[in-house]
Specification:
mainly alpha, elongated, Arc Repressor Mutant, subunit A, disordered N terminus
């Protein structure tokens, strides 16, 4: 009897909650982003997201306990896409690679609308504070690695104001593309890289 029970469990597993398909998760993220950009966070309908992905709503709740957790993982998937830990040989080259990857992500119209709504929703209700904090933490942890490499190359002094340096790394691009809603050309990106490189190297605490 015990063996029979185990056998039934194994046969039912493919249609059960334990099977999480990565390709379906990606499809759900895309559907969520489309809905989010269209309605704003407060207007998101998980029923419509599921329908857009061509699945049942239950597939969402097998993966996430709430809309906030769903949104958090979706945003994290974007952060992971832009964070390349490759050592490019110099602070300036590392900064350029990071900004180029970030620029690619921020050029997507859905992403730009979602990020603006994400910040606004945090100010309205605070529900998405943990989502923004998690994304910012991932970006800053990546930045710490970038700064550590520059210190090991003797490009930066250990007496570095890391928080200011990390603010400088991302803020100019964010200001131009999200706050001002402008595109950034490659030439403009190169000028940002030069300014950021110089700014970070000036971020030492006074003796």
């Amino acid at each position: 009897m015990e063996r029979k029970s185990i056998g039934v469990s194994k046969k039912r597993k493919p249609s059960g909650a334990a099977v999480i398909r990565p390709d379906l998760t990606d499809k759900l993220f895309r559907a969520l982003f489309e809905e989010w950009a269209r309605t704003g966070y407060v207007g998101i309908s998980l029923e419509r997201v599921a329908a857009c992905a061509g699945i049942g709503k239950a597939a969402i709740y097998r993966r996430w306990a709430s809309k906030r957790e769903f949104a958090s993982d979706a945003i994290a998937s974007i952060e992971i896409a832009m964070l390349d830990p490759t050592d490019h040989g110099s602070l300036k080259a590392d900064a350029r690679a990071f900004l180029q990857a970030t620029r690619t992500v921020l050029r997507h119209p859905l992403v730009r609308r979602i990020i603006a709504d994400l910040v606004a929703e945090r100010l309205r209700s605070g529900e998405l504070a943990t989502v923004l904090d998690r994304a910012a933490m991932a970006r800053r942890q990546f930045g710490h690695g970038l700064l550590d490499r520059a210190i090991n190359r003797h490009e930066l002094h250990e007496n570095l104001d890391r928080e200011l340096a990390l603010d400088l790394l991302f803020s100019p691009l964010y200001m131009r593309m999200i706050i001002q809603g402008k595109n950034v050309t490659r030439a403009e990106l190169d000028r940002q890289v030069i300014a950021i490189d110089a700014g970070i190297k000036a971020c030492c605490f006074s003796a």
